[in-house]
Amino acid sequence: MAMVLLEINQYLAFTPEQRAGVFTSVGIRMQFYVSILELIKQNNFWVGVGSIDFANIFWMINEKMGTTPEQAANQFSGFQNPHNEYLFMLATKGLVGLVLYVGIFIQACRIGWQKKDEVQRIGLLMLIFLFMFSITTNSMMTDMEEGHFTMLMLLVFLAPASLDLIKIDSKHKGEN
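^ thats the sequence. predicted structure below, dont judge the formating
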């Protein structure tokens, strides 16, 4: 952790041109974060730039920040997202989309908290917490099968014991 903090401090001391040349895992993520924050500053904060325009706008911002085509080919080859779901949602869907996205996890926590079995309740809340933490440095929902599997597991744990779609009134139980 200390080495990560050291690398972050070194990265922040660089000029934008020097930052584009850092090829470490932390350096690349930091370049993603700086680029995304600049993208958010320059575009609509409330509704974002949209998923379709995101890649083009991201590349334009990186070019303005001094990234050369060679650095882009080495550093961002195959880039699809900034390795942070929260920043990706904020950039593509804006504040409205981010609030709705986080709302899903808030609702999951609310339902998880209501579970009667303590093991289920704690396990479910830990699963949600760990997933929300992991999407700060990875794009679990965008391009990782593990994220899709985690969401499937979350849905299974959140499912009610029965759907009770048809409510039968006890007074009319015997009537046809």
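The first helix runs from residue 2 to 13.
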